[in-house]
Design a protein that fits this description.
This protein has 124 residues and is mainly α. It is built from five helices and no strands.
Amino acid sequence: MNFYEALNAHLAWKLRLRDYIDGRHGEYLEPSHVGCDDGCELGRWIRAQYPRLKNIPEFRRVREQHADFHRCAAEVVQAVNMGDVAAAEQALQQEYAHLSALVVKSITKLDRALTADEKASEAA
C-alpha cells in the first residue's frame, strides 16, 4: 500500500465535494456509493489486511476513522442531492474537515508503525 497515494486520494475528496456543492461537478454522486468505505483503494487494502493487522491499534484507528470519513462524505452528498446546500456546506467545513484530518494523521501513524515493525523483523 502506498500510503502517500491513499492520502492524496482522500485529500482530493474535499475538492470533489466542494465542486459538487457548488454545482461544478459533472457527475451525479450516489450517497450509498460514496459512503461505502471499501470502494476506494485504501478501503480495499483495509479489508484485505484486517485478518493480519486487526490487533494493531493504529490499524484499528485508521479502519474506524476511514469508515466515519466515508459516512460523512455520503451525508454531504445526500444533503446536496436533497437541495440542502447549507447543510452540505456546514458538514464539509466542520465534521468532514475534522474526520479528514484524523484520517490523514492516523494513516501517517499507521505507516510509521508498520515501517517500525518491518525494521524490527529485519533486525531479528
